[in-house]
Here is the input.
Amino acid sequence: MATKQRSSKELQPTTPPHLENDLKRLRLPIFLNSYDSLSLECSREETTYVEYLARLTSAELSERDGKAVQRRVNAAKVPTPKELSDFDFQAVPSLNKPKVLELGRCGFVGDRTNIVIIGPPGVGKTHLSISLCLSACRIGYRAKFFTASSIVNTYREAREGREVSRLEASLRKLDVIVIDELGYLPIDRCGAESLFGFFSLCYEQVSVIVTTNLPFAQWPQTFAGDERMTGALLDRLTHRVEILAIEGDSYRVRQSRQARR
Ligand code: ADP
Ligand code: MG
Here is the structure.
């Protein structure tokens, strides 16, 4: 910025009295906090004015992006944060690790592909679904985590308050929706119809990640025994789908067995 080295006292030009107020009005908190110290730093390094402006702008943007990620992560309402980096792939050799890592880059969201994670209890289905949900939030997508029961309850409450259209409008704004634990609890006729409506709404609009303990052939029993409705639902869900089938014992049971040994 300066062509020759000057003492730090000289480097501080008189600050225009309106500057800080203007930065507040423009909602540029990082400019406000850093313009002074960064001007000293840039003078010391003899950078150009443009470089000074570029550094301030990047700092402001990275703070803003970080906050936006945090807002999306909070809005996703995952039960506990889980990361792919903490997933022990060696414990589940049946799982296609390269495929899971590729899904973690979230290309599936762009082409509205769904993911179905099938396996017995404790093998990491919820862990994987949360990790993918959080990865999507970090990339810039809006995501939300539900269990099968919680989405059914959300629909029921919306129906009672005559707010189904509002609920569906808000779901349509999301990019990824997790439905965890489909098939664990039986769902009544009304709940099954809600889920059918939900999957129709998401078809080619929102990527859905479903975790389930049931192979597709047993899904009708979850949807109030309605084979026709389940068939239509599976048709939509599996039109574009990645299926992760996990086999093996519960991770925690195995861990505690190993610990005892
Ligand atoms: P599921 O949904 O299949 O019943 P969870 O994802 O809830 O299983 O896993 C149960 C617990 O074990 C969680 O705390 C999860 O983080 C952990 N877990 C399961 N599988 C693995 C794994 N392969 N690597 C690391 N942690 C795992
Ligand atoms: Mg689970």
Observations:
- The beta strands are 114-118, 143-147, 176-182, 207-212, 241-245.
